[in-house]
Amino acid sequence: MTGDPASIDPTVDNPTREAGEATPLPGSPRLTHVDAAGAARMVDVSAKPVTAREATAAGRVLVSSEVVALLRGEGVPKGDAVAVARIAGIAGAKRTPDLVPLCHPIALHGVTVDVTVADDAVEITATARTADRTGVEMEALTSVAVAGLTVIDMVKAVDPRATITDVRLLAKSGGKSGEWRR
């Protein structure tokens, strides 16, 4: 018999799979961080080309009108919450592989974090850039989440109900999948 053993017997590459158990169809959607046996794995990106990649994410921290007034005025009791959140977002992007277990450590070439005080929330937008073999979506998302957590830490004495919401990817570019926009 010749050919790939897994194409002949689906239990060869997955000893935990029972004979006759359904095998995902080629090209069907699948979770990339899960192997055929269902175990978590880090995706091997060594064969992928290095390309310029960028991702932008956003989120909000819902806050009270009292917090909005403080952020627009003389600040909150712990100091300049907007500046601290911006720096925390950049630091969060840099620490993403330490926080997200299967995320690749990549060289970040740029991270920008914009923090804006709206009438009912603090709006956060982060963009991460690299030239690498995998994207920076997780870095952008982590940046927004860490900046949001920092806002909550800075305002919790005034508004214990502050809530992070709507953390989402807005756009990404680069790599095989090219450009994507929400």
From TrEMBL:
**Catalytic site residues?**
D153
- Keywords of the record: Lyase, Molybdenum cofactor biosynthesis
InterPro entries, alphabetized: MoaC (IPR023045), MoaC_bact/euk (IPR047594), MoaC_sf (IPR036522), MoCo_biosynth_MoaA/MoaC (IPR050105), Mopterin_CF_biosynth-C_dom (IPR002820)
Say which enzyme class the record assigns: lyase
**GO BP term (any one):** Mo-molybdopterin cofactor biosynthetic process
What is an example of a Pfam family matching this protein? MoaC
Annotated region (Disordered) at: 1-30
Catalytic reaction(s) noted: (8S)-3',8-cyclo-7,8-dihydroguanosine 5'-triphosphate = cyclic pyranopterin phosphate + diphosphate
Query: What family is this protein classified in?
Result: Belongs to the MoaC family.
In UniProt terms, what function does this protein have?
Catalyzes the conversion of (8S)-3',8-cyclo-7,8-dihydroguanosine 5'-triphosphate to cyclic pyranopterin monophosphate (cPMP).
Q: What do we know about how this protein assembles, alone or with others?
A: Homohexamer; trimer of dimers.
Could you identify this protein by its name?
A: Cyclic pyranopterin monophosphate synthase
